[in-house]
Specification:
Structural class of chain A: alpha+beta
Order of helices and strands of chain A: HHHEEHHEHEEHHEHEEEEH
CATH class of the largest domain in chain A: Alpha Beta
Shape of chain A: elongated
CATH topology of the largest domain in chain A: Chorismate lyase
Low-confidence stretches of chain A: none
Number of strands of chain A: 10
Oligomer: homodimer
Distance between the termini of chain A: 51 Å
Number of helices of chain A: 10
Chain lengths: 251, 251
Amino acid sequence: MGRSRYEEIAEALRQAIRSGAHPLGSRLPSESDLAARWGASRGTVRQAVALLVSEGLIGSRQGARRVVLRQERRQSFQQLNSFAQWARAMGCEVSSRILERTVRPATDEEAARLDAEPGGEVLYVLRLRHLDGEPVMVERTVYAEWVAPAVLALPEDCVSIMDSIAERADVVAHYGEHLIDAVAAGSEDARLLRVRRASPLLRQRHLTYTAAGRAIEWTDDRYRAGSVVFNVMNSAAAAPLERHAGPDVTG
Amino acid sequence: MGRSRYEEIAEALRQAIRSGAHPLGSRLPSESDLAARWGASRGTVRQAVALLVSEGLIGSRQGARRVVLRQERRQSFQQLNSFAQWARAMGCEVSSRILERTVRPATDEEAARLDAEPGGEVLYVLRLRHLDGEPVMVERTVYAEWVAPAVLALPEDCVSIMDSIAERADVVAHYGEHLIDAVAAGSEDARLLRVRRASPLLRQRHLTYTAAGRAIEWTDDRYRAGSVVFNVMNSAAAAPLERHAGPDVTG
DNA sequence: GATGCCAGCTTGTATGAACAAGTGGCCCTC
DNA sequence: GAGGGCCACTTGTTCATACAAGCTGGCATC
């Protein structure tokens, strides 16, 4: 499926692991074995297994054979950056409604995040999102000025804004940065999500970039407690997650 | 500093980026340039820049020069898995107190997480952790039976359990899996963290493995809202973070 | 039977070469 | 001036080889 050789091999290994041909905790064949079996060089096989290691499927340490750590496949970048794509892959029915859409000057923080001039205009969008009919997430997004026209052209019940502007305006997300913490529901949050005020919400703020490193949007998503869980796999070789002190501590 | 050539080059590039020699948004020299400059082959340089890409410092796409995306260095695995190491690196004064330590049969979930027999014994530890004198996190950990003796031998005010058992019993964490969500404070949480009952807490449950894939501990950490923020960087090439539906949705 | 050592296997690091694929800027045309 | 096409440059993929470093299991020893 993957167009390059090492992606093919990686996909085949993923399948073999998921199907149980390489059970959880078992040791994978050596690189030389895999290279011979696939008629590829050891370097190519190493690229394939490096992919699986970075996905957290297998563990690797010098001298010892690689070990199977998990069986499920990791989500794609698209599914993490797009609520709609994720929900669809989960088999949930997703719907969204834009409640507000206004062009206004950027605050200082927004300008800094989007790498725009302070006081430049941005597009603010308030959206309520449902899973299987239940309100699950409130989304407050600020779009950079250069994508605003594409977003303003979309209908109120657009399911996936990122998908739509990728298709119509060729604005494709490539990098993302995510800040995750917990906050108390404000009165607007509480009304929209149908929870009590000050009840716990999981907040995911994220910044999305194009392939060239240009900021697209800065958004504040608040999930009803219990509706989603974030999952990170890390190792001594790769630690994609960071922990930062919040205002209560730095203060 | 790094013992291998590509780690040296990566560290030098990190320094250059952090110091502003390669400003944010600027384009890095080509692989050939770097290879010539460092007297290394292109393959070695590629390993170095691949490291920085995986750390989210630079972006990469075929045909175009690499772009500087951030300047700060990413935390190490140790700092993510050890609250004490992280706090120390932040320059905060950290203290901990073990409030409870009991050996009891594992629940079904605990046995499944630790890959132990249901009903086998585990060590339950309840700990309260402070940053700069303020209570910030409640930690409820279940240790696998084979590490229990090492943990039981530690004093009540041990600052870092993971550090201690790594040094004394040669139990070294190598992989970790993290589940992050928001919950309401229970009465015990509220009393210990000095917040109101049902106020929002950021929960980080995590499972720690040895290099050989053996489970060490399964823990439930609850942070006072506002005290910490988790941060993840991802790209189309690597998405280390997943989102999962919680019980409210799968219901 | 327990312990320690060693040989062979396996992964990690590094080189050099070649071709494929995508980008960006230049130049030419309309 | 706008648009399109061409080309040099850059990153991505793959190969073959060599050596370094760490692990495992079996053998010899005590």
